[in-house]
């Protein structure tokens, strides 16, 4: 069992580390979009797509960078008490809090999958069966949701990125949970 946990931790940490290192350069994409927005508003006709694309880029940057941030321990904590605790007491606190986070992420993933199915034109109440049907060919994509803006882009790409980011965050939380359990058992990670 320990060997499986170590392999899971290694695989998830490696995936989120590599993805996080790539996604962290997304801030430059966001900056480029906002610079173009400023230049086009000042010297040319204003681009209608820049604000919404900047929002999509920021969501992608934030949601795909979250697991990397959690892995590095750069998430916000209340260090008033936590900083003075022993490593064992910190591990116990982390085990308890990460269980709440895992529950929250499961609820978020369920809602995000439903929202993504809706953006692909599915109006039923079983979004997971809709995606299963897309794979097997028994479901069809309906009228796709678009943004109500003038640019009117499809919404499914950013919603799919949100599902992916939430799923990767869930995997990283399980990895952190396993690390804390192994620490409580006295094992080196």
From TrEMBL:
Cell compartments where the protein resides: Cell inner membrane
Residues spanning the membrane: 21-39, 51-70, 91-113, 154-174
InterPro entries: DctQ, TRAP_DctQ
A GO CC term attached to the entry: plasma membrane
Signal peptide: none
Family per similarity comment: Belongs to the TRAP transporter small permease family.
Its job: Part of the tripartite ATP-independent periplasmic (TRAP) transport system.
Subunit relationships: The complex comprises the extracytoplasmic solute receptor protein and the two transmembrane proteins.
PANTHER family with a match to the protein in the record: 2,3-DIKETO-L-GULONATE TRAP TRANSPORTER SMALL PERMEASE PROTEIN YIAM, SLL1102 PROTEIN
Protein name: TRAP transporter small permease protein
């Amino acid at each position: 069992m320990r060997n499986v946990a170590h392999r899971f931790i290694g695989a998830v940490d490696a995936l989120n580390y590599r993805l996080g290192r790539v996604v962290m350069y997304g801030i430059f994409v966001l900056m480029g979009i906002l610079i173009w927005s400023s230049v086009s508003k000042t010297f040319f006709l204003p681009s209608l797509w820049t604000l919404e694309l900047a929002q999509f880029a920021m969501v992608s940057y934030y949601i795909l960078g979250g697991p990397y941030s959690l892995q590095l321990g750069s998430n916000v904590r209340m260090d008033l008490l936590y900083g003075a605790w022993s490593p064992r007491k910190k591990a116990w606190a982390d085990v308890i809090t990460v269980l709440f986070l895992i529950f929250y992420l499961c609820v978020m993933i369920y809602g995000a999958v439903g929202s993504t199915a809706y953006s692909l034109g599915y109006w039923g109440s079983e979004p997971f069966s809709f995606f299963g049907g897309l794979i097997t060919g028994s479901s069809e994509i309906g009228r796709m949701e678009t943004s109500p803006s003038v640019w009117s882009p499809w919404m499914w790409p950013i919603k799919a990125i949100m599902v992916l980011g939430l799923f990767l965050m869930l995997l990283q939380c399980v990895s952190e949970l396993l690390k804390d359990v192994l620490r409580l058992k006295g094992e080196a990670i």
